[in-house]
Amino acid sequence: MIAFVDTSAFYAVLNRLDENHETADSIWKLLLEQDAVLATNNYVLVETCVITQNRLGLEAVREFQQEIVPILRVEWVTKSQHDSAMAAVLAAARKKLSLVDCVSFAMMREAGIRKAFAFDAHYVEQGFDCEFR
């Protein structure tokens, strides 16, 4: 199985005080036990580092970089993907729909990834499966 991992999931795994931490921790362990391919993109990594550093500090970023990033399949966003996602953000004209989200949706569709480890409702809204058992 391939699961795309969003910032919301990474942050919930890292932050023991996050409201989704217990669920995230369970899903993370399940994905690791199943030897799932954990896919993401470099924009998600940047977003995760910024949020984690601002809210949890540099030690949490170090933990993310040393313990989590090495087991990920990271896809790098191309200029074309960036431009298409930016056009989607501007066309949607919705305050909470981010460039990172739109890049991720497009990359998931291109790669045929249907499963998203995310606590961002936009993934379900976009037709991705966020249920893990």
Describe the structure.
The mean pLDDT is 96. The protein has helices spanning 7-14, 21-33, 42-56, 58-68, 79-92, 99-111, 121-125, and strands at residues 2-5, 37-41, 73-75, 115-117. Helix 1 packs across helix 2 and helix 1 packs parallel to helix 3. The chain is globular, with a radius of gyration of 14 Å. It has 133 residues and is α/β, with parallel strands linked by helices. A four-stranded parallel β-sheet has the order 3-2-1-4, with helices on both faces. The chain has one domain: Rossmann fold (3-Layer(aba) Sandwich).
SSE blueprint:
Elements lengths: L1 E4 L1 H8 L6 H13 L3 E5 H15 L1 H11 L4 E3 L3 H14 L6 H13 L3 E3 L3 H5 L8
Helix pairs in contact: 1-2, 1-3, 3-4, 5-6
How do you describe this structure in short?
The protein has seven helices and four strands.
**Average pLDDT across residues?**
96
Structural class: alpha/beta
User: Which CATH-level-2 architecture?
Assistant: 3-Layer(aba) Sandwich
Count the domains.
1
CATH fold-level topology: Rossmann fold
Instruction: Write the element-wise H/E pattern from the N-terminal end onward.
Output: EHHEHHEHHEH
The percentage helix is: 55-70%
CATH superfamily: 5'-nuclease
Side-by-side strand order of the widest sheet = 3-2-1-4
Share of β-strand residues: 5-15%
Total helical elements: 7
Tell me about the largest β-sheet.
4 strands, parallel
Net shape: globular
**Backbone CA Rg:** 14 Å
Number of strands: 4
Q: Kindly provide the name of the CATH class.
A: Alpha Beta
